[in-house]
Amino acid sequence: MEILRAASCGSEERSDAQVRVQPAPALSITVHSKTGPMYRSRIEEVGREVISRYGIAQAEVEIKEQGAYDHVIAARLEGALFRATGGGEAFHHPIPLQGERKASPHDRLRRTRLYVPGNSARLLAFCDTFDADCLLFDLEDAVPPEEKDAARFLVRRVLATLDFGGTELWVRINPLGRGGEEDLKVVLGGRPHGICLPKAESPVQITELAGLLYQLEGRCGLPWRVWIMPIIESPKGVAQAFEIAQASERVVCLAFGAEDYVREVGCARSWEALLWARSQLVAAAKAAGIQASDTVYPDVEDEEGLREETGRVRGLGFDGKGVIHPLQVRPVHEAFAPTQEELSWARGVVQAAEEARAKGKGAVAYQGKMVDRPVLRRAERLLELARELGMEVRDAA
Amino acid sequence: MPHNAVGREIPEEIAGKALRPFQGAFTTVPQGRKAAGPLKTIRPGTNKVVPSLEEAIKNSGLSDGMTISFHHAYRDGDLLVLKVVETCARLGIGDLRLFPTALFPCHEGLIPYIEEGVVSRIEGSMNGPVGAFVSQGGKLREPAVLRSHGGRWRAAECGEVKIDVAFIAAPCADQCGNANGLFGENACGPISFSVIDSWVADHVIVVTDNLVPYPAIPPEIEQGYVDQVAVVDRVGDPSGIVSGTLRITRSPTQLKIAHLAVEAVKAAGLVRDGMGFQAGAGGISLAATDFLAREMRKSGVRAAFAIGGVTRFLVDLLHEGLVGAILDGQAFDLESISSLREDVRHQIITPGFYADYNSLGCATYMLDFAFLGGTEVDLEFNVNVVTHSDGQLLHGIGGHQDVAAGAKVTVITIPTIRGRIPTIREQVTTVTTPGEVVDLVVTERGIAVNPRRPDLKEDLKRAGLPVRELSEMKAEALRLVGEGSSPVFGDEPVAVVQWRDGTVIDIVRKVEGWQ
Q1: Do residues A317 and A364 both lie within one domain?
Q2: Structural domain span for residue A58
Q3: Are residues A376 and A284 in the same domain?
């Protein structure tokens, strides 16, 4: 590959690197490191590795970094090379995954989906410690158009490098036809578990995405089927929610995005105004046998408000909620945890059902109310959740 | 070379002075009597006011090789240290030993005077450029000496450091030398760090830009100890006292650490009526104070007192009734200074009151818990606050040792990575505070409990908090940042780090290269 023009990528923010490349008769790498001599030779080595990966023999490379990790420096160099060479197939090749990553089950816990801006090295630096059930690397709204290419490389490297433990990893791509395809080609090389599709309005979008994933996941050597989470954020999307949920077996969860919905409908961002859309979305998801995740709570300062809203959407049947700050994770998880009252009710229901079965009785009642199959299933689900969360389940009083 | 109780090699003597190796946090038994200045008297009507610093210095008899002392209440807005040193240079006085409580980036101008030998020794905290300069080695006639707030008070009080002339910057003073830091255009908050200097120095000069009619109250510095009152144009710039941030951090990592730290002391049962806690400035400390306040509001708990580093956040808690009293050694913003003027529950304290080892009572011994920072921590729970991992001496000890030694539960709050540098080390570059007085290390990856505190470990686990091993968190951070080169230290000592009792806990040595 050849350097056609001078280009740069990255920023002078903390934990980021600014990388410049330009045409030159030979290869040279200069490093200005915030940490002084501590990592200088290592950074040079990273530079050489990336350069040789793209088969470049002649270039002048300048790396100015502010405490950036190796993978950030590599991603910024890739971004600069992409811009300087005009791109090509080589930029779609998957990069080696450090450590192991397991597949993520269809119905795993998804209480929180935490949005992380895809081009912020500073915010990505500690993203393995945020404790959300799902991390959602955002290439869409959080990234300005001129940085979409840079963000793809950064997200791919972060995905491939960090150990996220049991967190499910998602990437919110741009809409198909507006950069989404290119997003997929690059980020699937980092082995995410799922792709979040914004502004989902029709089942055709989902089948199109599923088709692309089918083509690309083999090429990237992905050992699992990539899940899809459509974000419903328009009245049209709400009207089509069930069809969207059913459009592909890859769809595991419908997410609600209230901001655009409120704007398009012209309604208030109030509980009443959103109630129909929320209920519709939950019903559509459950009818398709998948999960539903609520919109974000935009006021990060207001923890009480977040807890209250989460409690209410849990009451509607949502399985999770979008969060925009790691501090929102804990309150949402707590709000989704079953209460002791619910658990002792569930235990009672299950016990009553077992006893009835043992006695060969068909009809089961608990606390004077009939226990039919959906009630029993709800009770069992609560107990499963409690076990998954390591909660103590006390017997009914 | 013998090793001290934290395994550091300590030479038997440096520059002809015998060093006592650190033996443990509370092992030293003090001997002898307190030091004091010479007996003096005056007649009624004696005039102490002199119109310039230069004249005061001439009158004081300051000469080559002597020791001069300062407080750091103006922090990065101090104007006096440089003014005194410049004047001494002009008067041909040199080879001075500086005994400030702390130096800041604003004191970078000292460097040429160190090179010329006007200043040849420094015993005091060095934050920033002067520390970096001294780290190069060979700059001072003797290695610098670093002490905690309590350690410095002790050194002056027992005569370990004899002060020849004490210079006390005072935004408010009267003709007799009574002085405080609370009033005047350039009010800076308590100047109580200088109280010990006024008691033991051979000669005491109060330097003010605000001479008020007698009496200047409250008299933090008392007239009976003051030889001269020098009047200058401007004694200091109070905008420099602002420490850390004045807003609660938005950094997810810092917030997470602060939150975990508060959850930990809550789990230990320490968030209860009548508690005492240490509040600091800076990102994580402020956020922790904020989380603690929320917890207190929620559970109706009232603290008996808090020790600062005082900011308006703490003052707000006092006014809200969540904190019964503030013990204030340093003000970090202007709101705290006005609170000191207006509210008797907000009290000025000296380092002698809160931190002195050779004392029959320290406010820090009444602390239930404290949140402290550090540049590094190691697998033995030792903490470094003075050097960076590259060996540069860049910070003072402050009250770190005194608070850690006193608090029932000492919590070190530290991100595992700071600008790519991993903070959990096999061994810290410099031991400042020994692991024996550190109970918890809280990072964004979890909470490590000192094996000396199995009780705490149980409390934390019961509360469902993420209890981790330091070694695990160290490995996780290293996975992200990778193994870098390390500095190679030579033999030349650039600074002696004392434990608060005067024993030597570590030596900062010159960096010779990298490997």
Answers
A1: no
A2: 7-90
A3: no
Residues of A with CB under 8 A from a CB of B: 14-15, 34-42, 66-70, 98, 123, 125-126, 128-130, 161-163, 325-327, 330, 390
- Report chain A residues whose CB lies below 8 A from the CB of B418: 67
A397 inside domain = no
Residue of A nearest to B420 (CA): A67
Q: Find chain A residues with C-beta within 8 A of B481's C-beta.
A: 39, 69
Chain B's closest residue to A46, CA to CA, is B482
Give the chain A residue nearest B252 (alpha carbons): A326
**Residue A183 belongs to some domain of the structure:** yes
User: What is the torsional sign of CA B434, B437, B440, B443?
Assistant: negative
CB spacing of B480 vs A69 below 8 angstroms: yes
Q: Do the Cβ atoms of B256 and A327 come within 8 Å?
A: yes
Q: What is the pLDDT of residues A241-281, one digit of tens each?
A: 999 999 999 999 999 999 999 999 999 999 999 999 999 99
Is pLDDT above 70 for B246?
Answer: no
- DSSP H or E run through A331: helix A329-336
**Whether residue A218 is found in the same domain as residue A307:** yes
- Are A36 and B390 inside 8 Å of each other by CB? yes
pLDDT digits (tens, 9 = 90+) for A296-321: 999 998 999 999 999 999 999 999 99
Do residues A235 and A179 share a domain?
yes
Q: Please enumerate, as own/partner, the contacts of B104-110 that have beta carbons within 8 Å and a separation of 24 or more.
A: B104/B72, B104/B75, B104/B76, B104/B78, B104/B128, B104/B240, B105/B76, B105/B129, B106/B76, B106/B77, B106/B78, B106/B82, B106/B240, B107/B78, B107/B81, B107/B82, B109/B82, B110/B81, B110/B82, B110/B85
Q: With an 8 Å Cβ cutoff, are B252 and A126 in contact?
A: yes
Place of tokens 């006005």: B338
The DSSP call for residue B45 is T
In a domain, A128, yes or no: yes
Looking at the complex, report in whole angstroms how far the Cα of residue B252 sits from the nearest Cα belonging to chain A: 6
In a domain, A219, yes or no: yes
Query: Where exactly does CATH 3.40.1080.10 map onto chain B?
Result: 252-491
- CATH number of the CATH domain containing A56: 3.30.230.10
B252-491: CATH superfamily: Glutaconate Coenzyme A-transferase (3.40.1080.10)
* Nearest-CB residue to B481 (from A34, A41, A69): A69
Q: What is the pTM of this model?
A: 0.92
Same domain (yes/no): A268, A367: no
Measured between CA atoms, how close is B465 to chain A, in angstroms? 12
To the nearest whole Å, the CA of A208 is away from the closest chain B CA by 36
pLDDT digits (tens, 9 = 90+) for B189-214: 999 999 999 999 999 999 999 999 99
* Interface confidence (ipTM) of the complex: 0.86
Which residues, 6+ apart, have CB-to-CB distance to B212 below 8 Å? B172, B173, B174, B183, B184
For residues A162 and A293, state if they share a domain.
Answer: yes
Chain A residue with Cα closest to B258: A327
Q: How many domains does chain A divide into?
A: 3
Torsion, Cα A71 A75 A80 A86, to 10 degrees, reads 140
**Whether residues A117 and A50 fall in one domain:** no
Same-domain check for residues A257 and A299: yes
* Partners of residue A125 in chain B, C-beta under 8 Å: 417, 480
